[in-house]
């Protein structure tokens, strides 16, 4: 199954809600077309601001292209939706001189952060890159054990300490080990106790500091893992984490379990952050690199 087919399958609930209705709207073109389209986009959790922008742009485009077919108009909407996602090459694909690229995985407990860390390791291993995991969520013994199991499954080393150990110490050891072994990627799973924001901020700042202690040029990506099933509430989570740490990209999990996948557009547009990956299932291979145009087509078209 190709990437586009996997994305379509993973976004089936959102597409079921959206695509047939979009098809009817574009083919019938009732007088209430623009209003109905805006409401439909809002129901998919694109959000009222983005929905208004998309529909206003389409209205203006159709005014300047009076002979446009429904297919051409839908194609323009897809392009415009895809354009709401910021572009940008992730640090692990940049031609950097430094190894490893360090990825900090952040997010509240319950979003699938540790599982996503394992899946991300599987993704990089599939690309032929060397990976090390750092179990820096030291407050949950289950998180450490879960990451160790991923390590065994993928043949990836896992740096860990006992429960309650200093997370920054784990992060330091992880990066030091990765440098010594000339590994490509070090993925560090962190705690997600957002209710204790000040402690978490201090912890993440300390982790960032020790990572760059030996080499200030170490490339660090901070990926925020969000549960797509919470819809617009993901916006407030992102706002809180941006106060705590310099989030550089997003991973949306559980998109297969919601009909409101449009929240990805709202998140990217409001905060100007790239979506790096989407989770569309339980298997390791269900963490997919994000493609904005494929995403737009997957939720707007029936086929």
Description:
- The protein is of the alpha/beta class and 303 residues long.
- It contains twelve helices and eight strands.
- Strands 3-2-4-1-5-6-7-8 form an eight-stranded mixed β-sheet, sandwiched between helices.
- Strand 6 (249-253), helix 11 and strand 7 form a beta-alpha-beta unit.
- The chain is elongated, with a radius of gyration of 21 Å.
Mean pLDDT: 90
Query: What order do the strands of the largest sheet run in, or round the barrel if closed?
Result: 3-2-4-1-5-6-7-8
Strand content: 5-15%
The low-pLDDT segments are: none
Morphology call: elongated
Structural classification? alpha/beta
What level of helicity do the residues show? Answer: 40-55%
Characterize the largest beta sheet: strand count, sense, and whether it forms a barrel.
Answer: 8 strands, mixed
Global Rg: 21 Å
Counting DSSP E segments of at least 2 residues, the number of strands comes to 8
Pattern of helices and strands: HHHHHEHEHEHEHEHEHEEH
């Amino acid at each position: 199954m190709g990437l586009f087919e996997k994305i379509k399958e993973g976004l089936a609930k959102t597409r079921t809600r959206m695509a047939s209705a979009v098809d009817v709207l574009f083919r019938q073109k009732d007088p209430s077309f623009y209003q109905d389209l805006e409401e439909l986009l809002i129901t998919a959790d694109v959000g009222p601001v983005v929905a208004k922008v998309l529909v206003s742009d389409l209205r203006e485009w159709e005014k300047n292209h009076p002979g446009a077919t429904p297919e051409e108009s839908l194609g323009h909407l897809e392009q415009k939706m895809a354009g709401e996602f910021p572009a940008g090459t992730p640090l692990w694909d940049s031609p950097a001189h430094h190894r490893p690229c360090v990825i900090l995985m952040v997010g509240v407990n319950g979003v699938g952060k540790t599982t996503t860390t394992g899946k991300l390791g599987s993704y990089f291993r599939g690309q032929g890159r060397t990976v090390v995991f750092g179990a820096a969520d030291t407050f949950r013994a289950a998180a450490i054990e879960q990451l160790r199991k991923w390590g065994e499954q993928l043949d990836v080393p896992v740096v860990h300490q006992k429960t309650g150990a200093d997370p920054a110490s784990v992060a330091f050891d992880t990066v030091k080990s990765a440098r010594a072994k000339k590994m490509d990627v070090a993925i560090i799973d962190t705690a997600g106790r957002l209710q204790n924001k000040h402690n978490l901020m201090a912890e993440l700042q300390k982790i960032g500091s020790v990572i760059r202690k030996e080499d200030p040029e170490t490339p660090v990506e901070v990926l925020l893992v969000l549960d797509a099933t919470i819809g617009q509430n993901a916006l407030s989570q992102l706002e809180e984490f941006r106060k705590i740490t310099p989030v550089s990209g997003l991973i949306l999990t559980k998109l297969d379990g919601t009909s409101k996948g449009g929240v990805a557009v709202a998140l990217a547009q409001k905060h100007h952050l790239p979506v790096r990956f989407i989770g569309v299932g339980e298997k390791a291979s269900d963490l997919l690199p994000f493609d904005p145009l494929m995403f737009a087509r997957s939720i707007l078209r029936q086929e």
